[in-house]
Amino acid sequence: MMMMNPIPWSTIGVVIGWYCSNIGVLLLNKYLLSNYGFKFPIFLTLCHMAACSLFSYIGISVIEIVPFQKVQSRNQFLKICGLSVVFCFSVVCGNISLRYIPVSFNQAIGATTPFFTAIFAYVMSRKREAWVTYGTLLPVVVGVVIASGGEPSFHMLGFIICVLATAARAFKSVLQDILLSSDEEKLNSMNLLLYMAPIAVAVLLPATLLMEENVIEITIALARQDIRIIWLLLFSSSLAYFVNLTNFLVTKHTSALTLQVLGNAKGAVAVVVSILIFKNPISAIGMMGYALTVIGVILYSETKKRYS
């Protein structure tokens, strides 16, 4: 009888770290933007990107987590700029949606990422999957429709913005595969973040000043009343970087497929934890819809692996 090799403690550690940072930043952003009343999602994203810029530099240039990769050409830099703008849009929309809808509903919509990825992959690069693979996307969409109908805290604007965030996230992944497909231009996720985060700061800074006037003054005034706001912003920003770091480490210690499976489970864990913490009402129909979506995503992953 063959004995299975035990999972290394380092792998278990990075998976736990990935779960904690992912779910932690999601819950903390929800608390800040909704429960705490800090209504500045663009500024919050700016803080996240500034922290990612700083920690990326320290992680690669000082600690040397991964070797530094240079940008090879002006054309490659322009491609990275395009990716950064799409990345900014997805993160900002995701944060805005948390002002209006519960984390549980946010995760249900976010689970439809494979649906948008399949659409963008076909439209942009004519990449086709087997018909059975496309068929598994039906329960993904139907599940979200059911979850939306059964969501007690449904908010149309929050729903639309969350769908935009999910679509932008899928668009970014497809665009990244197309733009940085050659061996010379490929960057690992940590080096890509090193270049994208400062560009994101440059994009978000004027957007914050134009769309969220007096945010600095208001934040300072809030800090005088309650210093916790500064610590919450710093902690949320730090977690934003560790989401990317642990995502890279989990892929390095396991595989992209394992990451996808763990991601499906992470969404379910985030839903349960958010309901326990925020005590947002949830219906049996909503839970059934979300479960159907997750089942569809799992089937999609399996059929894609089998027929690709």
Structure notes:
With 308 residues, this protein is mainly α. The chain is 79% helix and 0% strand. The model has no long low-confidence stretch (mean pLDDT 88).
Class from helix and strand fractions: mainly alpha
Q: Strand tally, please?
A: 0
Largest sheet: none
Mean pLDDT: 88
The best one-word shape is globular
Question: What is the helical fraction, as a range of percent?
Answer: over 70%
Beta-strand portion reads under 5%
Please mark out the parts with pLDDT under 50 across 5 or more consecutive residues, or reply none.
none
Quick tags:
308 residues; mainly alpha; 13 helices; globular
Strands, helices and their partners?
Blueprint: H1 9-35, H2 41-62, H3 74-97, H4 103-110, H5 113-125, H6 131-135, H7 137-149, H8 156-179, H9 189-211, H10 215-225, H11 228-253, H12 256-278, H13 284-307
Helix pairs in contact: 1-11, 1-12, 2-3, 2-9, 2-11, 3-8, 3-9, 4-12, 5-8, 7-13, 12-13
TL;DR?
Helices cover 79% and strands 0% of the residues.
